[in-house]
Amino acid sequence: MTGAPAHGDAPGRAQPGSGPNRTRYVLITGANRGLGRAAAELLAEQGWVVLAGHRRAQTTDPLVATVAARGGRAVPVPLDVTDPAGLQTAAERIADRTGGTLHALINNAGVFLPEDARLTSLTPEACRTTLLTNVCGPVLTTLAFLPLLRAAGGASIVNVSSAEARTERANGQYTCYRASKAALELATVNLSLALRPAHIVVNAVEPGWIPTDMGGPDAPDCLHTAARLIAWTASLAHLHQAASGEVFSVHALPPALAAQAQ
């Protein structure tokens, strides 16, 4: 998939993070654990106000406490990416808190269900839940928060994908999960085209096989590197000629990010 610049030079257009006192707000779905939490902590360290999306009350308390102890700000936001009415309520609450703007949305929430491991064990409910959460969820969340993203005068959407979206990795297992991530990457490209006039860049990130609840403790890739890639991608909107419609991978870091790791 190839992306294109989301917009050209636009003198006078507001840029997220520009100006000495500009506050940047980022919403992260599934921020209570794993990659979502790691990205939330890193973005808070970089000065973002993190709106930590979660489905269950109190699950973001450790994140909020950790961020506060480091001098940052994180605010728990109850939401379910499969519930349009709940997403609308969350958007209204966030608009009240942020003055009606949102500078970045990270669609991180997703599921990886054991019933999907083999076709013979796949249940209709597991198939529905996987596709609804992993594909419809990011699109519905984007729609709910689109007015706030538009109001920012330049914003980023980051969809968390997987290398399992690649056809060459198919092995007959996890049919719905692989299909959901392939669909999410196509949705990323389509959203990038639809939202280009609004100065909203839309990209996907493939975080690798990382040691989270989903990936397991023996996963070989680095959680911190994946979080850094997400944070970098969330910050793209302030750049002129920012990439949009791209899929960035931890196994082929963008040059700017790879240089920082050296």
Automatic annotation (TrEMBL):
GO terms for molecular function: oxidoreductase activity. The keyword 4Fe-4S does not apply. Residues 1-24 are annotated as: Disordered. Pfam families: adh_short (PF00106). InterPro entries: Fungal_SecMetab_SDRs, NAD(P)-bd_dom_sf, SDR_fam. It comes from the Bacteria. Keywords: NADP, Oxidoreductase. GO terms for cellular component: cytoplasm. The keyword Transmembrane helix does not apply. Belongs to the short-chain dehydrogenases/reductases (SDR) family. This is Short-chain dehydrogenase.
